[in-house]
Design goal:
The chain is of the alpha+beta class. Helix content is 25%, strand content 32%. Strand 2 and strand 3 form a beta hairpin. It is globular, with a radius of gyration of 16 Å.
């Protein structure tokens, strides 16, 4: 039996920045995209991975779709049909994130 201990002294405390997607990205089938959660640490995005929260048949799900923003793709989607339907949505989400980042940059410089 393997026991994994978490060393809390080396834990990274990060915050999640959320960007609303509701109404900005078209849904597919019974899936509605709600928001993106980006991890930030000390004011910087913590890598290219984000979580895309969604609702299925109007009910928000506990799980999220993982997404690599740099590559513009959803990750770990094991249903080939769903993966194919999500493929054109990813670039739209990336564009929203880029617009949000540019707007935030302009607001900080004012």
């Amino acid at each position: 039996m393997n026991i994994h201990k978490i060393d809390s002294t080396n834990r990274i405390d990060y915050t999640l920045k959320t960007i609303e997607l509701a109404g900005r990205v078209p849904g597919i089938d019974s899936i509605e995209f709600l928001r993106v959660e980006e991890p930030y640490w000390q004011g910087y995005r913590l890598g290219p991975l984000v979580r895309v929260r969604y609702a299925l048949n109007g009910v928000e799900q506990k799980k999220a779709f993982p997404m690599d923003v740099d590559k513009g793709i959803f990750l770990a989607i094991y249903d080939d049909e769903l993966a194919e339907k999500l493929r054109p949505i990813a670039p739209k989400i990336v564009k929203i994130l880029q617009e949000h980042a540019a707007q935030s940059h302009v607001e900080r410089s004012l």
